Amino acid sequence: MYKETYKGIFKPKNPQKYKGNSKTIIYRSSWELRFMNYCDTNTSILEWSSEEVVIPYVSPIDGRTHRYFVDFYCKIKNKNGEVEKTLIEIKPKKFTKPPQKKKRVTKTYLNEVRQWGVNTAKWNAAKKWATKKGMKFIILTEDTLT
Prior knowledge:
- By secondary structure, the protein is of the alpha+beta class.
- It is built from 3 helices and 8 strands, in the order ββαβββββαβα.
- It is globular.
């Protein structure tokens, strides 16, 4: 179950791997906490950060430019010994698909449609930004994190 309110400060065992201020790392879900522990202790992760990469995107709601704080950045040494840089978003799987059309248009459904539109705009901007920088952008869900 995804908990929006599960939040705290992460204290890394390997602060030298963290790119940014290692004293102010905040997790916003148990999945983020689990991923932070993985990044901190996995020897294939050469450096990482949380919410340090900011990408501008245009919101489909108001047509204005906003700032997207990507959940994670990782510099990873892959199995072939090559170094890859990846931007990572962590989301419940249900938020990675468009909302199911309902018989009645409820407030909940309208909020889901709005959120889907904003998330899609963020992710498209992140993919484009990452590609320009020679990086990848991926979304991890509970299927990957559990």
